[in-house]
UniProtKB/TrEMBL annotation:
InterPro entries: CA_dom, CA_dom_sf, Carbonic_anhydrase_a-class, Carbonic_anhydrase_a-class_CS. It catalyses: hydrogencarbonate + H(+) = CO2 + H2O. Residues 57-312 form the Alpha-carbonic anhydrase domain. This is Carbonic anhydrase. Residues 308-346 are annotated as: Disordered. It is an enzyme of class 4 (lyase). SUPFAM superfamilies: Carbonic anhydrase (SSF51069).
């Protein structure tokens, strides 16, 4: 499986490592080792310096995902995502205004199986559909939303909060038309994207999600797509609009560090049957060996010297606030998509 990789010279150091991989959503690579997982919580320079380390730490795990078999341009690594948000270390910023979201249901185009996740596309030319306020200097247009989920309920979210992970995570991806002429260019540019992240936990059915869950059987295989009809994604946002924000990257290739992340504190509830519907999708195309689409999340990345700001006071500043009571997240140390229910799991 190493045949797909071209590796440039460079130290095993996230801030300076440049390497290229040809990527597609293909068959999974060899499973990662326990050794490779160590680097997910710290820069590679602290533990391994050999070429083998470069392969393990910077390619297979923890930077990548077993499904990434193609060419990836990873320019650096000082602000990669996702991260483990530590509430006590986040900085309350009273200057952060509320985030304003206004979406046009009519701009919803279709839902498709990308071969890695389930994605709902919107007309990116629709000016009125997007977000502003919060940490954003400009209005950002909605381009698409998608989900990441696990094989089981203990893990599946990309971000974690105080080492807690959730069964799934929603990402609403927006781009900045004030700085870039198109989404394609915004993906690679400074302040090009703003992504809202919402954790999913099990509970009551989310009626708004059922419209999507109902069409998933029609996109079971890779590259399948189907019209979804009008859909307003604001119904997928939690009632509480408190959030964390930090500068990060895409969590899928090209992993560009162009993202202002806005991670909602409050999860939304979905029924177990709704989450199970996502697990019936396949990574594979028709005619290929069937592989369940599960654990399509990237491992946690080092925070390094970044600051996570919050729009609300941390628990130590507001003793009455006990968000643990509304969280059903599972405490998992470095969930890795390749173990033990990796993409090979059926
Ligand atoms: Zn995502």
């Amino acid at each position: 499986m190493l045949r797909a990789m071209t590796l440039a010279k460079g130290p095993c150091k996230p801030s300076r490592t440049h390497f290229l991989l040809t990527w597609t959503w293909g068959a999974p690579l060899a499973p990662a080792t326990g050794r490779a997982r160590q680097c997910s919580q710290q820069p590679c320079t602290q533990s391994h310096r050999s070429n083998t380390c470069l392969l393990l730490c910077c390619w297979m795990q923890p930077s990548g995902h077993p499904r990434w078999t193609g060419q990836v341009s990873l320019p650096g690594g000082t602000r990669q995502s996702p991260i483990n948000i530590r509430r006590r270390d986040s900085v309350y910023d009273p200057q952060l205004p509320p985030l304003r979201a206004s979406y046009s249901a009519a701009s919803c185009q279709h839902v498709w199986n990308t071969g890695y996740l389930c994605q709902v596309e919107f007309d990116e030319a629709s000016e009125g559909s997007g977000i502003s306020g919060g940490p954003l200097e400009n209005h950002y247009r909605l381009k698409q939303f998608h989900f990441h989920w696990g094989a089981g309920d203990a893990r599946g979210s990309e971000h974690a909060v105080d080492d807690l992970t959730f069964p799934a995570e929603l990402h609403l991806v927006h781009w900045n038309p004030s700085r870039y002429p198109s989404y394609r260019e915004a993906v690679l540019g400074e302040k090009g994207l703003a992504v809202i992240a919402v954790f999913l936990q099990l509970g009551a059915p989310l009626q708004a999600l059922q419209q999507l869950a109902d069409v998933l059987p029609e996109i079971k295989h890779k590259d399948a797509q189907v019209a979804l009809g009008p859909f307003d994604p604001s119904c997928l946002l939690p009632a509480c609009r408190d959030y964390w924000t930090y500068a990060g990257s895409l969590t899928t290739p090209p992993l560009s560090e162009s993202v202002t992340w806005i991670v909602h504190k409050q999860p939304i509830e979905v029924a177990p049957s709704q989450l199970s519907a996502f697990r019936t999708l396949l990574f594979s195309a028709p005619g290929e060996e069937e592989e369940a689409m599960v654990n399509n999340y990237r491992p946690l990345q080092p925070l390094m010297d970044r600051e996570v700001r919050s729009s609300f006071r941390a628990p130590t500043q507001s003793p009455r606030e006990r968000p643990e009571q509304m969280w059903q997240g599972r405490r998992v140390l470095q969930a890795s998509p390749s173990e033990p229910h990796g993409p090979r799991a059926k």
